[in-house]
Amino acid sequence: MTKLLDIFDLVIFDWDGTLFNSVGQIVQSLHFAAQRFQQPLTDEAAQSIIGLGLPEVMQTLFPQVPELHQEILHAYSSHYVTHSVHDHWFDGVAEMLQDLRQQNVTLAVATGKSRAGLDRVLTKTQSQSLFAVTRAASETRSKPDPLMLQQILDYTGVPVTRALMVGDSSYDLEMAQRIGMRSVGVSYGVHDVQMLEQYQPQTIVHNVAELHQYLLSPFAVS
Fold it and tell me: Which GO MF terms does the UniProt record name (predicted)?
């Protein structure tokens, strides 16, 4: 019976909302920055852009004040770093990643975070050694452009047909679709099932335990 681990050599994870429980703090910090500069912002709008690179976030949320983008971004980043001390992996993530590594699966991260932000949380979770390669939006193109996925494939030498993208946003799944990579959606992060389904993932899971089970299941790939 075919197992997922017979099909894929590389699993690429998004970070915020997929591995890391940080969506609420990102939204709060965006609200703080918007209010500081008297810019309108709804919860729905703030959550919808999680996964994009920070310059793209500013362009999407505050197109009316391009001259304030750097100041808003600085206010957001400062607030997030100060108040995100309690952000953490979703329950079960550490065990899932360790399990995959023990079975010789190569792991990677493709995130909308900046390199500085990603390095900070990798250090916080002491997870640098789990991932063969990581790509942050500040050092490549923002999702849904698939360049960061191509760079990960080039670095690992894994063909796209043997790689799987796991993410909670339409940006993750569209990025994978555009490069011809199969994907898994998670519904416990940013975007809902209906939005994720538009990009034809292999499946959509609703919690980390279900994701872990799916990744190791003999029925994972039809």
Answer: phosphoglycolate phosphatase activity
